[in-house]
Each structure stands twice: as C-alpha cells, then as structure tokens.
Amino acid sequence: MQDQDNKSYQELHRPSSEFESRSDYLDHELKIMKPRRWALNLPGRDFRFEWEDLVPAIAGTIGIIAMYSAVMMSWADGLTQAWDHVNLGKDFAIEVARVEMLIPALLFCILASGFINPRANLAGNHGPMIPLIGVIALAGAHPLALAILLGVFGLLLSYFKGGSRLVNLTGEGVAGGLLVFLGFTGAMSQIGLIQTWATGLQADGIEAGSMGYIGLVVLAINIVLYAFLARINKRWLAIPACAITGLLVALALGAGFDLKFETEMGLPNLNPVYWWGSTEQGWQLGLPNMAHFIASLPFAILAVAMWSPDFLGHRIFQELNYPRGTDKVLMDVDDTMTTCSLRQIVGTAVGGGNITSSWGTYMIPAAIAKRPIPAGAIVLGSLCIVIAILGFPMDVAVWPPVMRIALLVGVFLPLLEAGMQMVKNTKDSQAAGICIFASAVANPVLAWALTMLLDNNGLIGDKERAKTLSIYDRVIIPASVLVVCLIAMLAVGMLEGQYGIPSLL
Asked: Where do the TM regions start and end (predicted)?
C-alpha cells in the first residue's frame, strides 16, 4: 500500500483488458487517481477519458439547459412585473442562458474542474432557488448585486472551512431524511408537470385534454426502462436513455406539433457593458445601487445557507457508489464552494443571471457511473459551448417529455434511493422521520438546520454520537445556522404564503 502511495497515476494505471469486468477497471481507476488541488492536471498523466464520461456529460448538459432556461424565464417574468420600465421576454431569456452556457462552461467546467482542481465539483444551478426568483425580483433585488453578495459569502464560508464542517455535523439519519424528502417531492412535481403538459396539448381538430394519455405512456415506459437499467447495474445511463425514450415516445404518439425550433445558430452578446451598462439594453436595470444590495442581502444569505445540504447530497452519492480507498477523488465541499462563488460573480458580471450551486445533474450520474470529476467536466463544458452556439438543441432539451424525464430519473429518483440507503437503523429512521416531517411543515433548509441541532444534542437519533461532539458542534454552530436560516426566510417572506407570517422587508 505504501508503495502504491509513492507511485504516480501513470505508473499505477493498467489497461481495462487486464480486469475481469469493466466495473473492476473503473474501481481501480478511482483508487489510483491523485488529483492535484489548484495545480495543472493533464489527461494521461493525472486522469483518462473513458466512454462512461459521456453519460454524466450528456445528462448534465440536458439538465443545465432546462434549469438555466427556467431561471432566466423566471427573472424575465419577475423583473417585468417589478420594474415599470423593464420589458423582458423569451428572446432575452434564451440569450442570457446562452451567455451562461458559454463563458462559465469554459472557465469553470473545462478549466477549473477539468484541469485546475478536479476535486471541485462543477458549478451548476441552485434548483431550490428557482421558485423564489419572482419573490426576489418583487423585493427590489438586483441580479448583479445578488451575485456579488452570494459570491462573497460563499468565499468566506469556504475560507473558514464552514461548508465541510456543516457536512460533517449532519448525521446520517438527518441527511437520509433530507434526501428522501427532496427526492419524493421533486419526483411528484415532475410527474405532475408532465401530466399538465400532456393534458394541455391541443392542435387543430384535437379536443383539449384528450391527449393526456401521452404523459401516462411516457412515464410508464420510462419507469420500466429505469427499473431495467437498475437491474443490470446501468443506472448511470438513465438520463440520456430515458430522455431520448421520452422524446421518441412523445413524437410517436403525435405530440410533435408542440415541439418548436425557434433558437437560431450564433453567439449571444458577450459584452458586459451591453447587459449592465444601460437601462435600455440587456437587463434594462443598469448597475446596482446600495438599495439593491440591501434588498438582495437576505436572499444571498439564504442561498449560501442552502449550499451545504445540496453539496452534502452530491458527495454522499460518490461515497455510496465509489469503492473504499477513493477519498482522494471525492468532491471537496470547500473547494466546490470556492469555484461556485467565483463562478457566481464572474458569470453574472458578464451578463448572466444564474444562481449557482453544485451541479447535481452531472455529479449524480457521474457517481453512479463510477467516474471522477475531470474528464466528464471537460466533455460537458465542450458540449455546453457547442449547443449554445448551435441553438436549436436547446429547444429539444426544454421540451417537457425530455426535460421532466431527465430531471426525474437523473436527480429525484436517485436522491430518493440514496436517502433510503442512508437510513440503516431505528436511530437513523427517527432522525430521518423528524427531518421529513419538519420539511413538510416548513421547508427542507429549515428542517435540516433544526434536525441537525436536535440530532447533535441527542434529542433525536443516536444519543451516543452527541457525547463525542464539542459544545461548538452540538450547540453553537447548529443553533447559529438555524437562526440565520430562520431570519433569512422571515426577511424574504418564505413563510408568508403558507403561514401568513409577513416579510420583514
């Protein structure tokens, strides 16, 4: 073992033909890799490209097109309502999404996660924040002000190792309950959206609602396909296989009239001055002032507070699917926070509008496929750049039978499965149950903070574990996280619609 530690990846690499199975070869690759943090990593010397890298790359590309499009449309709708002089539509949303797919893909997928630090997961999209974007706009926040604050807070948390500390303080029962809730609610949401799309199909001579069966058939066939892939240990193929199946089935059943190719080939405007330099161009907002920063502050705190459980879920997927002895290739939570923070500032400064987080639609299939971060990151970044220039593949990727199925089988079902695997005994099930209940009462972030505090003090879950923790880990840190999350949610009115508690702003 000591001899292996002294040898380089190149020296330890063996061709796949020497192994009994492909899985054994991939396990060996994970065990011998020695990624260089914040230094140059080169193909052949430090890692290799394998055909399995195509799967998370394609899955991540499909997922991010869908998420970016949803984010930009939410910004367009919210800002148009909030600002009298702003009038943004679909064309704006597509252009901004293409900006986000070009520059950040080059700098933070290919260069950062591919060559400079393969232990930092790719900086993707902050899915739980999408429903809040309308609220953010109406509160008077500015996308650029929000990005700067979020980036600064993220860098501070990363510098003080706060992200990894929070991950280590989250017990398996709490983490399992969080993943079960996110997986179940997310899956139900996607199923509902597919059925809403199918029942809303209407063409000449077709009665409204009469094509609702298309959604049911698409779901049924993909459930069978997903089960078959799981049976043969090929779940890492789920996103491309099921997304393509959803596309073909929907077309075969006559839903093709709903698929519109409207995005033309070309480059978006890459001049930051165009996007932020005038109230008549780009976002039509101009540069942010102090009022915009104040309005953006609680949302930035909330977004960063939500990072830790998000990152935790992605790292858990690696731990569940990688063999023992692969700690060196697991994503580093603090390094991922650093790249997410920098990507947030840079991506928005050049004209983007994404709210970033760890890239789940890449990491989850990559972990299932037993592949490390770098090679897939380079392939994914390249795909994003090509598709952003071509334009028309974005129209296919956001079509409901493709996008919803991709999110369902690539993110939410694996989250649900991973959460159930983490609940191993009665103590874990107790903590998981309280976390799920609290998530249903309030929301997953507040539930995570509350159950972490209870679990670390032995009030739920494993009482013996609480005895091994310091006063900081048991009380001060969890209680501070709970207070910060609660204040941020009260400030932005997250509890207003459900419980009538008005926004502090």
From this structure: 54-75, 96-117, 129-157, 178-198, 210-229, 236-257, 290-308, 373-392, 398-419, 431-454, 474-495
